[in-house]
Amino acid sequence: xxxxxxxxxxxxxxxxxxxxxxxxxxxxxxxxxxxxxxxxxxxxxxxxxxxxxxxxxxxxxxxxxxxxxxxxxxxxxxxxxxxxxxxxxxxxxxxxxxxxxxxxxxxxxxxxxxxxxxxxxxxxxxxxxxxxxxxxxxxxxxxxxxxxxxxxxxxxxxxxxxxxxxxxxxxxxxxxxxxxxxxxxxxxxxxxxxxxxxxxxxxxxxxxxxxxxxxxxxxxxxxxxxxxxxxxxxxxxxxxxxxxxxxxxxxxxxxx
Length: 256
What we know:
By secondary structure, this protein is mainly α. The chain contains 11 helices and 3 strands, in the order H-H-H-H-H-H-H-H-H-H-E-E-E-H. The longest helix is centred in the middle third of the chain and has 18 residues, at 92-109.
């Protein structure tokens, strides 16, 4: 929040504006904020304005993405695409993102039906896209259109691929894991906590979400096991409470 409000302050300084208003703040968002960050910045500005007018800080989300509708034909096609992704087993958030970014790309194609879209319109849409995440989802959308025989050929190859960030290794050697564990200062309260968190991951393979959500009631020190429902899969797991993990947890619970 401070970062965006500091940028707003700099915008005011450069333009000789001495008092806050939503009109000037919206001009700041239009001129200084990238397309991919406009919704976030708008939300921060709205909360700031709410604080100035009421004296209280609200955590309620006050800015929600609302996309303008396309032609009835394209909206009907997007509904079919939504059902298609649902059948594929995509999560609701993924389905929503695919629909949102596909809609934005179609809007830039400036067509009322899928039959009106040409390679020239695809090229124009690519050039005018600021959020390059749209390219990935647009390729998936046009692949769906080809599979369902709504277009005679695939437009996907006309849309560039964004460079993927190199992934971190998915596995580490025992020596590498030991080096990481050894760096934790276990004499401090935060270090005791971090060491327990780390061993839950390195020794038991718990996901980060399951680690931070872990409750004392799910740890059975007498039977030496951890039993809980995984957040990501919804499946129940039971893990052996090995000595290193047990000692780290007890050290944190009793001394930190």
